[in-house]
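Hey, resending since the last one bounced:
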Amino acid sequence: MADRLTPEQRSWNMSRIRGKNTKPELLVRRLLHAKGYRYRLHGAARGGKLPGNPDLVFAGRHKVIFVNGCFWHFHDCRVGQHAPKANAGFWADKRNRTRERDAGQRRQLEDAGWEVLTIWECELKDSSALESQLVQFLETQPRT
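The structure tokens again:
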């Protein structure tokens, strides 16, 4: 049986997990910047903070992008569906709450007239598909 972490070790590990400027987010930001797109970061819009603090805000286009980790946001891919064995009930509840919170924030943004795109960590593997998805989202005329 694998060695178990002490609560202090687990707490230290969890404190090192970032919510902003993650590697997946930086990859998407570099790709878009190289294509000439400019954006604001982490929910900053001219009128204040946006619900959910989107990773990238394109205020002039009224569009936002979230870059989500598959495990943390309970994506339906293989990584997102991995269920931790230790403290399984806690993790299931936590990830379900995150999924519900994400859906509520998306509804708030859409109700306020923003278009929302979620990029999942697993989608970063195919850079050409990712690039075309991002460009298509950003170049499509906003809904009226």
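Helices lie at 7-15, 23-34, 88-111, 127-139.

Sorry for the duplicate.
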